[in-house]
Request: fold
Amino acid sequence: DTGVSQDPRHKITKRGQNVTFRCDPISEHNRLYWYRQTLGQGPEFLTYFQNEAQLEKSRLLSDRFSAERPKGSFSTLEIQRTEQGDSAMYLCASSPPVSNTEAFFGQGTRLTVV
Amino acid sequence: AQSVTQLDSQVPVFEEAPVELRCNYSSSVSVYLFWYVQYPNQGLQLLLKYLSGSTLVKGINGFEAEFNKSQTSFHLRKPSVHISDTAEYFCAVSLYNQGGKLIFGQGTELSVKP
Reply:
């Protein structure tokens, strides 16, 4: 297993465009998380899936953001009408069903909105 | 609500010196505690975790941390640092009943100088 994979690693987009990121978790990990990390800050929780069900969404996740995990495997995070404030590192993590184990993080997608 | 405070944003230290990175948390319920390390433009890698049992936890790369319930602290220590330990370090908590969602501190930048 190669770990959590995120694509793309870097994305530069113009303000107002839509972007979509993909996350492939470790196989058999039924939990998947999205976090956002801005420069000089710790990651902030965005949303969480257990299998295909989206169980929690942060208030940080405005209506321009949507996340899906249609078959309980990979997940996508879409940002519509991007704004400069969306520039950040978007991190995906996955964990197995037992709640007291750690989350395994991908290398992240760095978004720059110009 | 839960929160994590890392008391030092930057810690410069000379190679082979000891180091302590401080972390305090606030929670009205029991938590699991974690330290993650992040190298530039990379995701997060788990250093160590406290779930229960012995309050002294040993992790990878020679790091250890001690859980102090009365002081709600989880400080990270290493007796002798290397240049390769230069990175950002994040303390995090998760709640027993919240699916493994992590709440991170702001991070501490450890800079090891020769």
The two ends of chain B are 41 Å apart (CA to CA). Chain B has a mean pLDDT of 93.
